[in-house]
Amino acid sequence: MDTLPRPQRIAIATHPRLPATQTFAQELAETLQTSVATVCTGSLNDVGLRQRVKDGEFDILIALGGDGTMLRAAHLCAPLQVPILGINLGHLGFLIQVARDDWQQAITDLLAGRYWLEARLMLRVEMHRTGELQGVWHALNEVVIARGQHVHPIQLTAIVDDLPLTSYTADGLIAATPTGSTAYALAAGGPILPPELRNMLLVPIAPHLTVDRAVVLSEGSSVAIRTHSDNAILSVDGQMPIGLAEDDVITIRTGEYSALFIRFGDRGYFYRNLMQHINPQLPPGVRP
Questions:
Q1: Cα separation of 143 and 183, whole Å?
Q2: Residue 287 — pLDDT band, cuts 50, 70, 90?
Q3: Is 269 a residue whose pLDDT tops 90?
Q4: What is the pLDDT at residue 2?
Q5: Same domain, 74 and 169
Q6: Which of 3, 85, 211, 271 sits between 20 and 30 A of 244, alpha carbons compared?
Q7: Do 129 and 248 meet the contact criterion of CB atoms below 8 Å apart?
Q8: b vs e for 77-94, b when ≥16 Cβ sit within 10 Å of the residue's Cβ?
Q9: Do residues 22 and 83 both lie within one domain?
C-alpha cells in the first residue's frame, strides 16, 4: 500500500444529540494537537464548522457517531472531495471500519499515511412536476418513493435509459447505491453489493401481484420513476419526506462526485464488518 499524504488540518465532527461524542472529540483533539497544524471540533449541525469545511480549510473530517453521522458527513464533504474517517460510537456501523476501542491505532496509521481512500457512488436525484424541475438532491444510501399516509399501495412506472422497465404496485420502490444495499434495501430483501461497484439497485417494497425481485442496473444507467398515485412521498437518505403528486417524475443517475472514506489494511474489511453485523454472535476475527 502506497503512503498517502499525512493530514495536517483536521476537523472532528460530533453527533449533535450524543453528548458522549463531544467528550470523545475533546480527547481526540488533545491527542492530535501535538502532531498536526490545525484541529477543530464541532457538531455536524454547527454552522461555523460546516462553513469552514466548505471553505476548504481541512484535509480530512473525522466523524464520531454511527451510520447516520457518516451519512450527514458525506453530504457535507463529498461535493468538496474531503475524505471522511469514521469512528463508531453509535449502534450499527456498516459504513465505519474503526471501532471505538481501535481509534488510537487508526490515528497512528492515519498520521503515518498508512491508509487508502475508498470512493463510494452517490446518486443525483431530480424531481420534476409538469415538466418543471422542483428540486435536486444527492444520495449516498438510497432514494425511496413510498406510500404516504394512506395504507393502500401506490402505482409506479420505472423507465431505464429511456426504455420502459416495468410497473409496480407496491408500498414503494427503493433505488439504492451499493452502500445503500446494506440499509433499507437489505431489509426489503435486496442483494448485498460490494462498495466498489457503481451500479444502481432497484428494490420494490411489499409488491402486490407485480414484479417482486430486485434489479441491478448497468453501471452508468439512469432511471425515471413516474408516480400514478396521489399518495406517494419521496425521501432521500432518510431525510424529511416530500409529498408527490400524480404524474411527478423522479430521475436518478450517477452523481457528479463520490464520497471518500478513509480505510486501513486490506480491502476485505467490508466482508468482515458485514459478517460481524449479520452474525453478531461471532467473536471478532472468527470467520463464519
A1: 11
A2: very low
A3: no
A4: 60
A5: no
A6: 211
A7: yes
A8: bbeeebbbbbbbbbeebb
A9: yes
Residues 175 and 80 both lie in one domain: no
Contact 38, 7 (CB under 8 A): no
C-alpha cell at 115: 491508509
Q: Are residues 230 and 272 in the same domain?
A: no
C-alpha cell read off for 61: 473530517
Distance CA 244, CA 252 (A): 16
Which candidate, 41, 120, 40, 39, places its Cα nearest to that of 81? 120
Q: Which residues are catalytic?
A: 67
Q: Is 85 helix (H, G, I), strand (E, B) or coil?
A: strand
> Which CATH number fits the domain that encloses residue 247?
2.60.200.30
Alpha carbon distance 233, 4 (integer Å): 43
Q: Tell me, what's the pLDDT at 286?
A: 45
- For 188-247, what is each residue's pLDDT tens digit? 999 999 999 999 999 999 999 999 999 999 999 999 999 999 999 999 999 999 999 999
Q: pTM of the prediction? A: 0.92
Range of the domain at 20: 9-120+258-278
